[in-house]
Write the structure tokens for this entry.
Amino acid sequence: MGTSLIDIGVNLLHRSFHEDREQVVERAAVEGITPLIITGTSVRSSREASQYAARYPGKLYATAGVHPHDAKGCTPDTIQQLRTLAGQPQVVAIGECGLDYNRDFSPRDVQRQWFREQMKLAGELKMPLFLHERDAHEDFAAMLREHHGSVDKAVVHCFTGTAQELHTYVDMGLYIGITGWICDERRGKHLRELIRDIPLDRLMIETDAPFLTPRNLPVKPKEGRNEPIYLAHIAATVAECTGRSIMEIEIATTETAKRFFGLSVEE
């Protein structure tokens, strides 16, 4: 077995994992893909993620936050609930939070309000941010700049944007999360070229399972469900696109993830 890999974004409590969640974690661990970080997207899902992660100390971690889609459900108590969750040792970042002007499931002013509150919380707790941005680059970048001094560090999860957007984020000191989108020779073509512009010490990899199954997997998974075990395939694709060795990508992304999330991972 080679280096361990860290999947920084897994929707492990998604219903598609109900039948075999424990086996999914175990399968990944056997292949050296451990720990996994479960993404929280609402107070409820963040609580569930935290509770599930607590059952696997050192193997699973969680984020606590409210996705822009869910911002409309926030209440005056939301930030305090996230603050309480964030105090647990298995919770390692605030998020998934940010802006999504593609779907507009929550009004844009409401999205901005709760993104701002979560940035403040991350600053107060000195915790990293796990970010979501879709079709909202200008407002998103402007809001991050406002909080630049207070936010410790932040990763733009599942980056699929333009060269200009990438360079803006890199210049702002943000970290970049790359998913199996890069394995799609149609939609991911521009990303395959752009990835060379991401500094190696700011690059992390994630599956976003069960979504974004790599299109170029040699054997397609049953019912098309993505899972953390395919992270090695994403690492290999990143290596190919950057002209680096797989080992170099594995070591670098793992070290970066450990440093970013403050993980003390056993080798």
About this structure: The mean pLDDT is 96. The first helix runs from residue 21 to 30. The longest strand covers residues 91-100. The two ends are 11 Å apart (CA to CA).
